[in-house]
């Protein structure tokens, strides 16, 4: 039970750190929505294999956003933290390395779920 509490606490702090960076959140969440609006306005009325082309583009744009939110952000943030010595400082704390990684991956999953909801909502609206 204590391990779960430690992971939840680290997840909370990672979410706070992420949402306190408005530029990163803007690029992560609204860039796919902007792409969706641009492509929907460019290809409105066109069809591909029986689907409207803007409906056909939504899964691809959503995949782009999830890759941006998870894979790219995770690799860049972990590399930056390693280079700045943040990960070495974690060794001096009672936080276990596995708990840090679980919280980091869970934070990425939460961001991906929010991104999918925003992209689907924008796709349905437009």
How do the helices and strands line up, and which of them pair or pack?
Elements: H1 2-19, H2 22-42, E1 47-48, E2 51-52, H3 53-84, H4 86-90, H5 97-125
Antiparallel strand pairs: 1-2
What does this structure look like?
A hairpin with a 2-residue loop joins strand 1 and strand 2. The chain is elongated and about 60 Å long. The mean pLDDT is 85. The protein is built from 5 helices and 2 strands, in the order ααββααα. The protein has one domain. A two-stranded antiparallel sheet has the order 1-2. The protein is mostly helical and 126 residues long.
Top keywords for this entry?
126 residues; mainly alpha
Mean pLDDT: 85
**Strand arrangement in the largest pleated sheet:** 1-2
Q: What is the ordering of alpha helices and beta strands? A: HHEEHHH
**Main sheet attributes: strand count, strand direction, barrel closure:** 2 strands, antiparallel
Number of domains: 1
Got a strand count? 2
Tally the helices. Answer: 5
| Beta-strand content | under 5%
Helix percentage range: over 70%
End-to-end C-alpha gap: 45 Å
Gyration radius, rounded: 18 Å
Sheet/helix structural class = mainly alpha
Outline type: elongated
Summarize this, please?
This protein has helices at residues 2-19, 22-42, 53-84, 86-90, 97-125, and strands at residues 47-48, 51-52. The chain has 126 residues and is mainly alpha-helical.
